[in-house]
Specification:
alpha+beta
Length: 273
């Protein structure tokens, strides 16, 4: 009889007593218990953290429909991240996998783990002792209103004189706006350069727009992830905030520390069908 469940993989990690103990109390995206799956061959130095989820939700066709349901997606993302965060919390070096990475059964998962085993181990070596921090840069330049018309309160010009005065005001306003944006753009470049000197690696993500950019003011002009040594997180934050201090129209948001999602190469998921 065909198993109606699929194998949902959350992360790659070294198999340690601490990791094995951590998963015993975890529940995943479908409320399922989490356990470790070892490679198909060789010494089990690493493992997938997995759970069994219903094909009725995570097979290719129903999954596509679910991904358009924002409530379902938010709940699933939170549950996925909670498993990864718990593994990180036990002190394990973790390669988090992308949302809804599924295999048809555990044998297929073992084979996939074994195929890339040496690569995963080398990447875990690189990421051990490091975390991911996000840095979002927002440009919110102050656009100073036009200077008060010296003739305010007096009879205003009409006709050609009024048109010229209006165009002059608009040009002054545009110049101030352009100068403010140049100042912010230069400061943003300096901030990015500073962050790069404080981190081991950087991944540049696309700036966010609309609701993804968050409720704060301004335009998101930088949305980068940085790989930082765990004992350098405070120094990284202090350096970024110092670089942004006193720059009018510049707002910076630092998030994390997170598991290094942006620095873990994701294995290709197997079609579930």
């Amino acid at each position: 009889m065909t198993d109606p469940n699929l194998v949902y993989t959350y992360a790659v990690l070294r198999r340690t007593p601490e990791a094995a103990a951590a998963v015993t109390h975890l529940r995943g995206v479908a409320g399922e218990p989490i356990h470790l799956v070892d490679p198909a061959a060789g010494t089990p130095r690493l493992a997938f953290a997995v759970g069994h989820v219903p094909a009725a939700d995570y097979d290719e066709t129903p999954l596509k429909a679910h991904l358009d349901d924002l409530d379902w997606l938010e709940t699933t993302v939170r549950s996925h991240h909670a498993v990864v965060a718990a593994l990180v919390g036990c002190g394990a070096a973790v390669l988090p996998l992308r949302l809804a990475t599924v295999y048809h059964d555990e044998d297929r998962a073992r084979q996939a783990l074994d195929t890339r085993r040496d690569y995963f181990l080398s990447l875990l070596d690189r990421l051990t002792g490091h975390v991911e921090l996000g840095v979002k840069i927002y440009a919110t330049p102050d656009i100073t209103p036009p200077e008060a018309d010296p003739g305010a309160g007096q009879e205003q010009p009409t006709g050609l004189g009024a048109g010229r005065a209006y165009l002059s005001i608009r040009r002054r306003r545009q110049r101030r706006n352009e100068e403010a944006w140049r100042t912010v753009a230069q400061a943003a470049r300096h901030l990015t350069e500073t962050a790069a000197t404080l981190a081991v690696d950087r991944v540049a993500h696309s700036p966010q727009r609309g609701s993804l950019a968050g409720p704060g003011p301004g335009t998101n002009v930088g949305n980068d992830a940085y790989l930082v040594a765990a004992d350098r997180v405070d120094a990284f934050r202090a350096g970024i905030l110092a670089a942004a201090e006193g720059v009018p129209g510049l707002r910076v948001e630092i998030t994390g520390p997170w598991a290094p999602y942006s620095f873990a190469l994701q294995p290709e998921p197997e079609p579930a069908a």
